[in-house]
Structure formats: C-alpha cells, structure tokens
C-alpha cells in the first residue's frame, strides 16, 4: 500500500494499517493464565549461570492463528529469572535474531558494562556475557531489549521477561510466596493485531507521538486470561510491559486490596487502596483477598496521557469497577481539551481492559494475616545532596518532530557519542525533572533506585514513597528525585536516563550519564 495514496505522511518499515486492525478475540474460548517458567540458573563455581537465547518464534494468541514473535528461550517473552540478593550471576546471552538486540536488566544496580543498554549490542548470531552481583532488595524487576532506536519494536514483539529478586528479610515475612500458585507475576501489554494475526507496529507520526498502543490485552502473552485461585490470598506482581499505555488497575467489584511494593522493593507497611496506577516500566506488588469465594476481575483503564489540563493534579483516583463507565478521568485530560475537543483524533486510544478473571477454587489455602510492617527503607538525607541537576523533557511539534528531532531532554536528542552528565561516585544528588510537553512521560534512570522528594513542591503520596526507578512526570509538572550513586565507576561507559514510552526513547528522549571515581 502506498503511503501517499492514504494521505499518511512519514510511513516507514513494514508497517500495517491501523484500518486493517482486526478484533480476533471475539468468540475465542478463554485461556488459562500462563505462568512463565521459573529459571534459577545453574551453579558453577561461585556463580549462578543463566543461558538466554534470543530467537524468532511463532505464537498462537488466538485459536488457529499464528503470529510471528520474538522470545527468550521460548517463542514470546522469556522465563522468570530467580535471583537471590548476594548472588554473583553470569548471564550468557546468545542471539539468533536477524537484527542487533540488547538485554537490559531494568532496575538493577550494576556496572555499566553489564547494564545491557545500547552500548552492549548483540549482533545476529553473536553473544554477550554480563556478570554482576545482585545488590537489589527483594522485588520484581524485568529484562528487555534496549537496542539503539529499536527498543520499541523489539519489546513489542516479545523481547522481555520478569526477574524475581529474593532476600532473607522479605522471605521471613508472612506473604504469599508460592510462585504461580499464590505469587503471580503479571506482565501487562496491549497489542494490535492485523487480520492475518501479525502484530501491528506502526511508526506513523501519531504512533510515535502517542507511543504504540493496541486494543488487545496480553497478560504473560495470553489474551484476557482466567486464573483459578487455590489460595484465599493472592500476591500479584504487576509490571507494565506496554510500550506506551498507562493503566489504572482495580477490581470490578471495587474491593480494596493492599499495595505492598513499588519498583525496587517492599513499602514500609502495606497500603490499603482500591487502585494502582502504572506507567510503562513501573511495577507494583499487591495482595488481594478472595476468601469470599466469588469470582472477581482485575480491570485496567488505559489512561489518556495528553493535555495540559492535568497540570499539577494528583495521580490517584477511584479504581475502575464494573459500574463505573468512564475509562478516562478528568485529571488525565484537561476539562478544556475535553470541552473543545482539541485533541480530536487523538482520543481513540482510551479503553478499559480485563486483565485477569480470578475464579476461586472450591477448596483453598487459608489466608495468613497481613504483616503490619514490611521493610525498613534506606534513608537518603536530602541535606547531603551535592548538587541539583535539571532535566527538561520536551516534544517539539510540527516539522521538527516529523524529522525525528523533537523528542529531547534539555533540548538535546540522544547521541550515543555524547555523555550528557558526569556524576561522582559516593555522592547524593537531586535530579529535578520538568515536563515542558503536553504528554505525561515516565522518566527512568539506570543503575539507581531513587526516592521521590516532591511533585510540584508537595510530598509524594504513600504509593510513591517506596524505592523507584521510573517516575511519571505529568505535563507542566516538576518532580524532584533523590539519588545516591555508589560502588561502580566507569569514566567512559554511560548509563541511560530516558522516557520509558519506548517510541519516545527510540525517537531520542534519552540521555547518558557516567559515574566516575
Ligand atoms: Cu526499562 Cu532503560 O529501560
Ligand atoms: Cu532500565
Ligand atoms: Cu515520553
């Protein structure tokens, strides 16, 4: 199809038309949730060794329809890697892909050479070894492609997996801990499919600007799965593995639950709530009680991330329920934009998804009491900060963006040859992130788990007071982060900071910093 004939401006690659988008799910029998295999590696000497193979595969997301995908040791996504704090691990990654890829350990504190960012490419047929000590607190992390300008399409096709880090403090708590039984990893990804079953990945301007979104919800690679609960209390570990879509999760009957963890670890204490908001890259752990024996669905509203009207508003709002019909909250799109219809054709990406139907089994393991305290969070003293760095996120509009130069941090588009910031090891800094654009951006920093100091001068809400590696910055907002740089230095090899909307990252909303002695 000629792009010109369709009146579409810059239209690259083997993209398919949104107009051809098919809803393939209707009429298909519901599938059971698939739990990715738990992979603990092999002990060799003092190391825990993992063999990971990147490969093309074919997946069946819909009955009898084959979809070309990418996976790690399997056709789509990869195994859940199980690591213990204190382990020394060796990741042997081989690639049978037809293009250069990388594997990045999102959320990990490790040497830059082991980070798996764009400076550690794995060529087709090639291999890469990463060796590092596990210095994380217990939490769920994830691994995914970080290939230069190709993270979006590679993650979209399946190059991602989850990582469980365990430590003795969290194992000693009375929390559901039986992988796949009452401790359930959920990677949430929206996807668009063409009528032949292939994934639609479009680099039309609209999809680059808004990020690539789909109308079909995949959870661990299964369309709207069903899960049979054999326990009264479930621990759900959510990762927003979508390229661009933000979600607000909640249960269809409005039941409350507890959030127990953020990106990089457990909260100090369980937080009662009825909703959790996650932008791409963010994670949360929640505990839900199903002891009433009634089926319940985890829903997610895909949130609108455009508009100046939400300037300065808080993140939280009521969770989606069966009876609430509006998948978009005012705070996500300003009243002005809503009234004037200013965003016109941009508004078609809002939707409500069913993430997981939970059906309690007739006989279930009894609930254990929720611990009152979960963790003692490391304290970083803002008074120790040696400096404040500013990061201004922007999206140029018009011709500049169409030429690909519009996605910037501090006015600069990502350049692999340029080190943007140099920090000193064993120092504390404040990073002040300002959003000068019309869209919300999830700002992610490699190598550190940081704390949110304030949003527009106000203390973060309880759900954001834990360890974070990705933080949403809403239009017009200024968010200050407190970071401590430790252990690893390299004068030449940088870590990344970037927007975790992968199309924005690929389009240049990324910068590089080194940590030096
Ligand atoms: Cu999850 Cu730099 O990435
Ligand atoms: Cu990362
Ligand atoms: Cu962005």
UniProtKB/TrEMBL annotation:
Keywords: Metal-binding, Oxidoreductase. Residues 309-329 are annotated as: Disordered. It comes from the Bacteria. The keyword GTP-binding does not apply. GO terms for molecular function: copper ion binding; oxidoreductase activity. InterPro entries: Cu-oxidase-like_N, Cu-oxidase_C, Cu-oxidase_fam, Cu_oxidase_Cu_BS, Cupredoxin. Residues 63-169, 404-516 form the Plastocyanin-like domain. CDD domains: CuRO_1_CueO_FtsP (cd04232), CuRO_2_CueO_FtsP (cd13867), CuRO_3_CueO_FtsP (cd13890). This is Multicopper oxidase domain-containing protein. It comes from Qipengyuania atrilutea.
């Amino acid at each position: 199809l000629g792009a010109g004939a369709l009146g579409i401006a810059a239209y690259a690659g083997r993209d398919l038309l949104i107009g051809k988008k098919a809803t393939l799910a209707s009429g298909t029998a519901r599938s059971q949730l698939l739990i990715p295999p738990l992979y603990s590696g092999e002990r060799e000497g003092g190391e825990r060794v993992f063999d990971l193979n990147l490969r093309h595969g074919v997946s069946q997301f819909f009955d009898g329809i084959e979809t070309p995908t990418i996976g790690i040791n399997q056709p789509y996504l990869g195994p859940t890697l199980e690591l213990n704090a204190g382990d020394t691990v060796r990741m042997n990654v081989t690639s049978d892909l037809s293009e250069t890829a990388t594997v990045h350990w999102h959320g990990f504190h490790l040497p830059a050479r082991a980070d798996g960012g764009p400076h550690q490419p794995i060529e087709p047929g090639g291999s890469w070894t990463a060796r590092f000590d596990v210095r994380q607190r217990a939490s769920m992390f994830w691994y995914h492609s970080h290939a230069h300008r190709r993270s979006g399409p590679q993650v979209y096709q399946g190059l991602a997996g989850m990582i469980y880090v365990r430590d003795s403090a969290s194992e000693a708590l009375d929390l559901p801990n039986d992988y796949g039984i009452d401790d359930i990893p959920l990677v949430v990804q929206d996807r668009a499919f063409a009528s032949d079953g292939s994934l639609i990945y479009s680099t039309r301007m609209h999809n680059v600007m808004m990020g690539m979104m789909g109308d079909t919800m995949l959870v661990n690679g299964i369309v709207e799965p069903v899960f049979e609960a054999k326990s009264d209390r479930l621990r759900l570990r959510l990762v927003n593995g979508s390229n661009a879509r933000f979600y607000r999760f909640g249960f269809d009957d409005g039941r409350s639950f507890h959030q127990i963890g953020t990106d990089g670890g457990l909260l100090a204490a369980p937080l009662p709530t009825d909703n959790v908001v996650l932008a791409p890259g963010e994670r949360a752990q929640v505990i839900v009680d199903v002891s009433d024996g009634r089926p319940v669905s985890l829903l997610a509203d895909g949130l609108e991330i455009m508009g100046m009207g939400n300037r300065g508003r808080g993140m939280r709002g009521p969770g989606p329920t069966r009876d609430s019909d509006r998948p978009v909250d005012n705070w996500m799109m300003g009243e002005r934009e809503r009234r004037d219809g200013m965003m016109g054709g941009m508004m078609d990406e809002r939707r409500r998804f069913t993430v997981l139907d939970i059906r309690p089994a007739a006989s279930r393991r009894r609930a254990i009491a929720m611990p009152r305290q979960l963790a003692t969070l490391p304290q970083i003293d803002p008074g120790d900060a040696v400096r404040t760095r500013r990061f201004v996120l922007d999206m140029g509009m018009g011709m500049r963006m169409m030429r690909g130069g519009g996605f910037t941090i501090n006015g600069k588009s990502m350049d692999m040859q340029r080190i943007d910031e140099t920090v000193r090891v064993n120092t504390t800094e404040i990073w002040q992130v300002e959003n000068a654009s019309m869209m919300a951006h999830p700002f992610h920093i490699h190598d550190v788990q940081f704390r949110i100091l304030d949003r527009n001068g106000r203390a973060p809400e309880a759900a954001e007071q834990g360890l974070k590696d990705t933080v949403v910055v809403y239009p017009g907002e200024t968010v200050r982060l407190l970071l401590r740089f430790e252990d690893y230095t390299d004068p030449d090899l940088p870590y990344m900071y970037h927007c975790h909307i992968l199309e924005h990252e690929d389009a240049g909303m990324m910068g590089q910093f080194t940590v030096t002695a």
